Amino acid sequence: MDISDLRIALFSGNYNYVRDGANQALNRLVGWLLENGARVRVYSPTTKTPAFEPAGDLVSLPSLPIPGRSEYRVTTILPPRIKKDLNRFAPNIVHVSSPDSAGHSAVRWAQRHKVPVLGSVHTRFETYPRYYNMAFLEPVLEAILRRLYRKCDAIVAPSDSMAQVLREQRMSYDVGIWSRGVDKHIFNPDMRDMDWRRSLGLQDDVPVIGFLGRLVMEKGLDVFSDTIDRLVRRQVPHQVLVVGEGPARSWFESRLPRAVFAGFQGGTDLGRAVASMDLFFNPSITETFGNVTLEAMASGVPVVAARATGSESLVEHNVTGQLVRPGATVEFADALQAYCGNPELRLAHGQAGLKRSEKYSWDRINRGLAETYIRLIRQRQAGSGGVPYRAIR
Description:
Elements: E1 7-11, H1 21-35, E2 39-44, E3 57-60, E4 63-66, E5 69-75, H2 80-89, E6 93-96, H3 101-112, E7 117-120, H4 138-149, E8 154-157, H5 160-168, E9 175-177, H6 194-199, E10 208-212, H7 221-233, E11 239-243, H8 249-255, E12 260-263, H9 267-275, E13 279-282, H10 291-298, E14 303-306, H11 311-314, E15 321-324, H12 329-340, H13 343-357, H14 362-381
Parallel strand pairs: 1-2, 1-6, 2-3, 6-7, 7-8, 8-9, 10-11, 10-13, 11-12, 13-14, 14-15
Antiparallel strand pairs: 4-5
């Protein structure tokens, strides 16, 4: 069996209606699979105003807007038309990338039709409630996730650190890695543009601390702003550049009145924005990989990040950046202050990060996932796939 024999039904909670790192990776995967002869059919909620054109055939799933976060949608049960479409497509593997209702239904369909299932983990959903004063829900969400992933033949995580978390949470007996790559044509030190920086009112001789990501509270906006407050009180010369959009932008602007908000940037504009930073600050703990961290490293920018899944696998402490205990604003401020006052250290760690980023090739990474698909299909054909988790504890 080779890649051209694959028929993949991919279920996503957000394939292209709001742009994020997870669906960018999924679209890149689908494009790569199609180029290599596989057949792919994607099932996801859709909107009339998608963020970008999807790769591959996209089938719209019924969905409802999430209360309070209407830009996102949650799927309902799979209607008969979707099940008929699945039957006609006749996948030889199902890939579930979101633990929503459609994902659970897709796993049940696969079990009935004796089709292997791969689950991919893209974010730490169980940590989200703590950002909305509902941390008591975390054990409940973790139990729901465990119920889904234990029914999969295997699951994959974007980083070694996240894979270890999944093992500790007893999510599956078969946990692999589907990492992330970086586009070196977009993210590289040559994209640095001081004229663009000046056009935003940023000075050449004052270090720029950058934030990149969707402006939502679960990205650690409170920790970021509290840390910047400490730098202000310490009278550390610095400037802040925020790249991204989201529902928490007005809150973030009120907390960082001196920051420059560049809004959404894409393609080469995004590469220019990242390379034009002097250091990158990522306090988030919800990412399973941290695409933005890798993009900063590929741009030759040192990183200060929370010691959490994703960043912990990317950033080498005191070599390519600094890893700090999550939420520790004093320690974050110490790390940022060290970089602000030492351009030689910024350069050394930025160059080390650039070198480390070179091993993240999209072709190698996506080929590895295709090989995982093939392995699971062969295991199922041999009668060794789909072993319940409880059978091997």
